[in-house]
Design brief:
Length: 127
């Protein structure tokens, strides 16, 4: 089986085939590294939407947080990645999670002056 390190590298690099192989061989789709990062979090953080779509289809947990309490939705909002924000919201991501710094996904969008993602989050009921 592909290792967790390989899975996380594949998620960062957008290697969808390696991610699929890991999942189909029974690997833990929600496994974390020492910073609490999962393949889902890394796919969002590195803008790998094809990997994100696959992980959502494979039922990766949406609201897991890294060691700073950040969710994938927060990472997407802070990057102004409107497509990923839409994908995560459509999949049911929780807009009310609060990171260790006191910010929600909307707070990340506002703090980084990301108007498009802030508007998407407001429409989804985020505060």
């Amino acid at each position: 089986m592909t290792s967790l390190t390989s899975l996380l590298a594949a998620a960062r690099e957008g290697d969808i085939e390696a991610v699929r192989k890991y999942v189909t061989q029974g690997g833990d789709i929600n496994a974390r590294d020492s910073n609490g990062m999962t393949a889902l979090l890394l796919s969002v953080d590195y803008g790998q939407r094809e990997v994100l779509r696959y992980l959502l289809m494979a039922h990766a947990k949406l609201n897991l947080t890294d060691k700073w309490g950040q969710t994938a939705l927060m990472l997407a909002a802070g990057r102004n990645d409107a497509q990923s924000v839409r994908l995560l919201l459509d999949a049911g991501a929780d807009t009310g999670v609060v990171a260790k710094n006191g910010l929600t996904a909307l707070g990340y969008a506002k703090e980084n002056a990301q108007l498009e993602t802030a508007e998407l989050l407001r429409k989804a009921g985020s505060r």
